[in-house]
Amino acid sequence: MTEFIIKNGHVFDAVTGQKGDVADVCMKDGKIVDKVSNSATVIDATGKTVMAGALDVHTHVAGPKVNLGRWYRPEDKFRLGERCSAKIDPKTKIEGGFSIPTVYKTGYEYARMGFAFLMEAAMPPLYSRHTHEEIRDTPIVDEAAMPVFGNNWFMFEYLKNGEIDNAAAYVAWMLRQTKGYGIKCVNPGGSEAWAWGLNCMTVNDPVPYFEITPKEIIAGLITTNEELHLPHSVHLHSNNLGNPGNFQTTLDSLKIAEDFKPNNNLGRKTVLHHTHIQFHSYGGTGWGDFESKSKEVMDYVNKTPQISIDTGSVTLDETTTMTADGPFEYHLGALNHLKWGNVDVELETSSGVVPYVYDPKVKVCDIQWAIGLEVPLFAADPMRTMITTDHPNAGPFTRYPRLYAWLMDKKYRDDLLNSFKYATKVIDATYLAEIDREISLYELSQMTRAGPAQVLGLSGSMGGLAPGMNANVAVYNINPDNMQKGIELENAFAKSAYFFKDGVKVVENGVVLEADPVVKKTYWVNAKVPENKQVMHDINEKFLKYYSVSLGNYEVIDHYAPHQEIIEV
Amino acid sequence: MTKTIKNVICTFCGTLCDDLEVDVTDDEKKILQVRNACAIGAEKYLHVGNPGRVVVPRMRQPDGTYKDVSYDEAIDFAAKTLLKAKKPLFYGWSSTNCEAISAGNVLAEKTGGVIDNCATVCHGSSLLAIQDTGVPSCTLGEVKNRADRIIFWGCNPAHAHPRHMSRYSIFPRGFFTAKGQKGRKIICVDCRETDTAKVADTFVRIKQSYDYEIIDAFRTVLRGEEIPDEVGGVPAEKIKEVIDILKSGRFVTLFFGMGLTHTLGRNHNIDEAINFIRDLNDYTKAVLIAMRGHYNVTGAGQVLGWQYGYPFACDLSRLTVARHNPGETTSVDLLVRHEVDACVVIASDLAAHFPFEATRTMASIPTITIDPHISMSTELSDLHIPVAIVGVEVGGCCYRMDNVPIETRKCVDAPEGVLDDEELFNRISKRVDEILAENGVQDASEYLAKIEQES
Based on the structure, what is the number of domains in chain B? Predict the structure, then answer.
């Protein structure tokens, strides 16, 4: 296999502790190594920035709701000037879409930005075959997917009765059946309530019929997660998303984590990951006095080491929202009167899709934008703070470079802030104007590389440049001694100078070199538990009586994930 | 001795029943018996062993007769035909698995084709309405467990989806529906008294093609406004009665079929139905589900969706961009306007279902039909390539009408030497690559330029 040496780049890597030191990075046989032979291909990175391949801890890139978005938004492919639907590089396949790109565009665009791993954030178990089919067809990037458990009938019953062993056995069985990675919890209880057109708005609202509260669900899921020693913590999208004044619900949800300690052998130090926290940091009583409560939420996150978050930052684009939070999408559809898609899934979850325009001329959208930047800027520990757009909910992932530039360049974001039609009102309702902090390249490498790798339990192989780790290396045309600003910085992040995936050069000067250059892997977790006859009995019974498919046809068989990386715990 | 294969998935209609039991001989060559299937589904399995199956490709001769050829010859002919065409049409896909659809899409991108599936003459109008107004839906298990109000509009599952009513919609006892049929109110809206109408609690007989007006009247009554004494042949009293039934339910499900998608108004009917369901959600929970016909027409749209972003009618003929413009890139329109110059009919019967003008074009241009059976399309084709039958002789992923993917099962071996769809498309793609390489060109457009220059 080819050897590469990236010479004289400024290396930013939290794993080896390099903060811009000029150093060489060597790769051999798909791994980072100490040194290579003389025959290694030399890449000159003088005056460039070198980082490990990035990880996206929360993105919606594969599965039924993503594809519903593609189906029902042909207009998403017709945007001009965004390179939306075309063959972009000579050897790649036709790419399409802006907020909900096709699988080809997803893989290529992530690779151009230097991403090596994506976590599909919500997989309805009944649809897991679909999710895996899309993952299989997405080129280059490694992927994993988290099945949703927060509205699952089995879990309701086990957790209500305090049967943690049974809950753990069921989760382990489900991860094997769906080739899933961890426990995702979306609007606990609320999505089940939505099957009757209802919702759970606080952590104490009982779920209709099942009479369990969101608080009990979250606590039960964390207990189950730690009992199973899973690599990732519980991944929570809490109740009451998107509503003014919801920060109180968010704090109530976060407080549940206080009683727990991490229990795993993969270096994870957290027990609860709260996702897209921007959507959960709102104050006010309505849209009129809508305001930022990011400081209140982040103060709590900063002092609680068991919690990690991702930002869900708004990029002020026309996008497509999609979530397993069915009632939220209904309310959003009622608010903006754009097309409402909804899919309730038997025994498991609900979900919805609604297009949304984050219009810079609308005060509320601008406040959301500001909160999305305040969250990472208030973060005390970059290793527990991941930058995301909750793709595509707050904006498409292709806007990450712009987001990085806003965070790293105060003038760039302030110029935009002051250009808003209702700038004064927005400034009054937010903290952003007062914040001088600019994220450094080292902090960025923590928030996008080492941090997510640690939170996902993948720090042994990803998110760093230590020998033995996967040879995922991104080189950007950014000279830390003379940093670009604003749009130029954005462009440098959008088109990496080089990106190596598993030791193979897949991108050069922002061009993807081959249509399908490397073996991409699907990660899933095989959690071993003692045989549990009670759970198998329950599963048999529920499939016989209530599911619309046979138990024998539920499992995702191997050919849906041809190249598996199985994490045994 | 015989073997019994359980949990077999019936690859006939969009209901995709997955509880069949099939007895096969020990050598897995012959199907002996099928249990749990409807009459149509059982025949799908039992007919496989009938004599007269085509097992080698057939090429049409100048005198109009067919001659058996090898797969290699057939593949070479297909590759050359597609490369020589400026804009070949790939139509069908609804009766094969997603793996084959994916492999076929690769071939279509290589040769600059238009990919279209049976939705184009079926639920394409539903898809257009979904593109306009969205779709509140759910899985069929939700219907079974929760629905206490069922509407069948312009569909007749008693004949078209025979086990739909017993598995999902009328009779099953689910978690919150322990009384089964007794706990449900069934409403059937149709212009004829179908066998489905006969099992309904309320039958609303309408004048043909007045669907839009009647849904509009439903919405008007739902909002508490007045309507004329009679709309589309239905008395106002009846409309009010139906709305009362629906509003008093806990979970309403509307199933709709060709009677709504292809009567006057087409996509506008569905648009109105979707908005009716959306309105109903102000009072109770309501969803709708399209009664998709072929067992994997949904999957054809899904694969096309994640690969190119559109559910049907996707034009890749420019080789650099995927276009979707129903009315322009839809099969019937392309054929009627003579805009395609070769045709691949795959896993469907174009000639049996398209308007005569479209079929006439298909017969006049080079056409390759890929199908296990003899059909009207095969008889109008220049080449018929037989393949293994999905769900009987080969497995693979298929999508149910509610978009739930299910892996189908192989029961018996295909006749010796017969390829499956996926392998066939992979081999044609490989042959296309070889021809491009032999001619020293990068892609199909350069190949066309070269042969035009040479002639």
Answer: 3
